[in-house]
Amino acid sequence: MTWLFPPLLIAAAVAAYVGGRALARRRQQGERAHSRPGQHGAYALIWAVVPALAVLVGAAILTPSVGAAATAAGAALAALLGALFAFSRIRPELRARNRVEAWIVGLLFASSAIAVLITVGIIAALVFDSLRFFASVPIGEFLFGTQWSPQTAIRADQVGSSGAFGALPLFAGTFLIMLIAMTVAAPVGLFAAIYLSEYAGPVFRATVKPVLEVLAGVPTVVYGFFAALTVGPAFREFFNGIGSQLVGGPLDGLGQYLMLVQNQMALVAGGVMGIMLIPFVSSLSDDIINAVPQSLRDGSYAMGATKSETVKRVLLPAALPGVAGAMLLAMSRAIGETMIVTMAAGLAARLTLNPLDTVTTVTVQIVTLLTGDQEFDSPKTLAAFGLGLTLFLVTLALNIVAQRIVQTYRQQYD
To answer: Do 192 and 93 belong to one domain?
Structure first.
């Protein structure tokens, strides 16, 4: 029924034009109008479009068996009746502006309500399936268990693993990669923001800042390819080379370990993820630093402070709440990343903080558990919802903490 929308738009445009012209004719007769012709035209447009859209939506949802011809006829009739009703109401004393604004307010309210309801629906679905999972797996075992092997037997007569759902190795892998990413992104992004805000010239800033913002829009799968095909082999050759030099010496054990380092490791995934987060941190921090009033800079310079002293003792303390919030938001982004970890960190669920080991994260396991044809009555598949609920609560907590920091330590300047 998409072919009905162009004629509907044309009819709406005609209704708006006719409605505006109808008021213009009334005004030529010396009558003073409350609203402008364009607002009367918008009033006619609304009454022509809304009934027709209601018919189309009702035909698509309530009676999908209705033919296209009957639907088109019903929509055209509804648009005609609505336009005639609007034309009958158009007169100089009609408060068309108020009516149109009321429709706009209603549309905005409906959009807000739909967004809230969708969010509530997602949370409800996540909680419902998570409760089904926790009915078969104790929540204590899930949160504090050290073995993750979700493979279970599908049928009662089938020989298979009973499964182990201790998610602590997943949490450790997620934390390790997030820590490495923030170790890269936090200082580089913050220093880049300070340079662009306080030291860079107008031409350099106008060139580099848009480039950084464009870099933030690069798909994460591109970073994943970069990590798997370039960074991973480079790190492996680097550590293997160091290990070959240590073999046979007093650090023979360390050399043997470094000789076994592979392409996939937490260091590769965390480093590339940190590169991905640099534009995010630098852009937010730059905006926050620029929001510090110029009067503070001028006062610092008037007291004899240098630019670096002004940055260290005036700008950064003033911008610290906003910068801390930006860092926490970047941490939330790192925790929820999937593609880079899938392609560069591996799938081994290990309880380790060694950056040279292969690890996995919560998001990777969610993708793994829900890939392919799955039975949604088994703990193996329902474990993805338990992981999703945990990840949701962690990121929600980080966002709340970031907002609290900004609200609590925000300083108002005259």
So the answer is: no
Supply the CATH number for residue 374's domain: 1.10.3720.10
Q: What is the pLDDT of residue 177?
A: 92
Clarify whether residues 170 and 107 are in a common domain: no
Q: Which residues pair with 149 in a beta bridge?
A: 164
| Same domain assignment for residues 295 and 405 | yes
The answer to whether residues 204 and 90 belong to one domain is no
Say whether both 75 and 168 belong to one domain.
no
Average pLDDT over residues 128-147: 86
- Please check whether residues 184 and 80 belong to one and the same domain: no
**Domain assignment of residue 125, yes or no:** no
Non-local (6+) Cβ contacts of 8 within 8 A are 49, 52, 53, 75, 79
Domain count along the chain: 2
pLDDT tens sequence across 308-335? 888 888 888 888 888 888 888 888 888 8
Q: What is the pLDDT of residues 81-116, one digit of tens each?
A: 776 666 666 666 667 777 778 888 888 998 999 999
What domain range includes position 79? 2-115
- In this structure, the answer to whether residues 259 and 397 fall within a common structural domain is yes
Residue 317 structure tokens: 């303390």
- Note whether residue 144 is domain-resident: no
pTM of the model: 0.76
The pLDDT assigned to 34 comes to: 62
**Residue pLDDT, tens place only, 156-200:** 544 445 567 888 888 989 999 999 999 999 999 999 999 988 888
Verify that 204 and 275 share a domain, yes or no.
Answer: yes
Tokens describing residue 314: 């005036």
